[in-house]
Automatic annotation (TrEMBL):
PROSITE patterns: GNAT. Residues 16-28 have a biased composition (Polar residues). Residues 226-369 form the N-acetyltransferase domain. It comes from Terrabacter terrigena. This is GNAT family N-acetyltransferase. Residues 1-40 are annotated as: Disordered. It comes from the Bacteria. Pfam families: Rv0428c_C (PF24553), SH3_Rv0428c (PF24551). PANTHER family: L-2,4-DIAMINOBUTYRIC ACID ACETYLTRANSFERASE (PTHR43072:SF60), N-ACETYLTRANSFERASE (PTHR43072).
Length: 369
């Protein structure tokens, strides 16, 4: 059976036109039946490859569809390939999996992804509680917990004139009682004001950085998991927990503003994450931690922190070495991190591990946001 091109509305929420709250991985309108387990982990909005049976019978011809999964239910998958939208009957899906974003330029695994694709990937590594969209733009809200999870990610084509897209986003945030904040990115050293969306926002009284020093310029740095030094016999033991434990959360909350509920939801909201920590052997208190977000081909590190009394003794390096080991063992050659441009220690740390700046972003908001 052929994949059937479809251009009409699908039977479930499209992530870019509607709003979703909570897990984007569930299959609205029905649970997966056992015969459909192969596709159970697929995430709407992800790039997927689907091996699809073209005819009945053993040894029958099959083909692969590669593209963005835009909708799914118990009976169908809808995939936007480069050339068309196809509606695939799930009973004829032989195998399917999420795959890394495509290479858009030459370079090594951590260099060849486009900034847009990396931004979309990173948004899944720090999944907002409430999500919507305007075309490719991703609208995110999480009760104010972090700029990333409470801003409109300006990527790709909003499929509306920019002013109308901004109107839509402003209404979306106003409906939630939240200020509209826009995250815009560009090459290293880019001038945000040159982007049409930012020019429009500046006209409306928004300012680059939104009045926050740490929002002015955030560096997205990428590196190879294979280039991170391995753990040694001298390395402190690192705990990697798939569950968010109370003492990890408490230690995290001691060093940054948190929003009960939203913080736990964002920390645990990706398709896969690990909570890493190093403890003081004497007191058993956590002295260093990080969260590892897991993607096809990519690992992202969030919230890396070492207690001030234990800095410059290799704790962060040990944590990242453990994260890179997990990445290498799980087919994730590329790693990303996001660090404020004004965080000299953070930038020095990542540079020391061979990470380089892939692109930068800034937040554009009203000064009161
Ligand atoms: C950045 C941070 C995680 C580093 O932790 P750490 O355990 O002190 O780092 P390490 O001891 O493993 O440092 C490894 C190397 O990174 C570089 N580095 C680390 N801190 C640095 C600093 N303050 N200034 C310059 N270089 C630094 C050095 O090259 C260092 O090697 P060296 O000590 O032999 O010179 C820690 O300072 C921290 O928690 N800061 C606050 C939170 C933060 O900024 N997190 C990073 C955001 S992505």
């Amino acid at each position: 059976m052929n994949g059937e091109p479809t251009h009409g509305p699908t039977d479930e929420t499209h992530p870019e036109t509607g709003s979703q709250t909570g897990s984007a991985t569930s299959a609205p309108g029905g649970t997966d039946t056992p015969g459909h387990r192969l596709t159970a982990g697929l995430t709407i909005g992800s790039r997927v490859v689907v091996r699809y049976r073209l005819e009945e019978g053993e040894g029958a011809a099959a083909t692969d569809f590669v593209g963005e999964l835009v909708a799914r239910n118990a009976d169908f998958l809808v995939v936007d390939t480069r050339t068309e939208r196809v509606k695939l009957i799930r009973a004829d899906v032989l195998a399917a999996k999420d795959v890394p974003p495509p290479a858009s330029r030459t370079g090594r695994a951590h260099e060849r992804v486009s900034a847009d694709d990396l931004e979309k990937l990173m948004a899944k590594g720090w999944q907002a509680v409430d999500r919507g969209g305007v075309g490719d733009w991703v609208l995110r809200a999480s009760d104010g917990f972090t700029g990333r999870a409470n801003s409109a990610l300006v990527v790709g084509d909003p499929s509306l004139p920019v002013a109308k897209a901004i109107d839509f986003a402003e209404r979306w945030y106003a409906d939630r009682g939240r200020p509209a904040i826009f995250q815009v990115h560009g090459a290293s050293g880019f001038d945000p004001a040159e982007q049409p969306a930012v020019a429009e926002l500046l006209e409306r009284g928004y300012v680059v950085g939104g009045g926050h020093e740490s929002w002015q310029r955030v560096l997205v740095m990428t590196g190879l998991s294979a280039a991170v030094p391995p753990l040694t016999e001298q390395s402190a033991p690192v705990t990697a927990d798939a569950q968010l434990q109370l003492d990890w959360l408490t230690t995290y909350a001691e060093q940054r503003p948190v929003v009960p509920g939203a913080t736990e939801a964002v920390l645990t909201g990706s398709d896969g994450q690990l909570f890493l920590s190093v403890r003081d052997p004497g007191t058993n208190a956590i002295i260093g931690l990080a969260r590892l977000a897991i993607h096809p081909g990519w690992a992202g590190i969030f919230g890396l922190w070492v207690h001030p009394d234990h800095r410059r003794s290799g704790v962060a390096t040990t944590i990242v070495s453990a994260a890179a080991m997990v990445a290498r063992e799980n087919n994730m050659p590329a790693m990303y991190i996001q660090v404020s441009g004004d965080n000299a220690a953070g930038v020095a740390f990542w540079s020391d591990l061979g990470f380089t700046v892939h692109h930068e972003y800034t937040y554009v908001a009203k000064a009161s946001a």
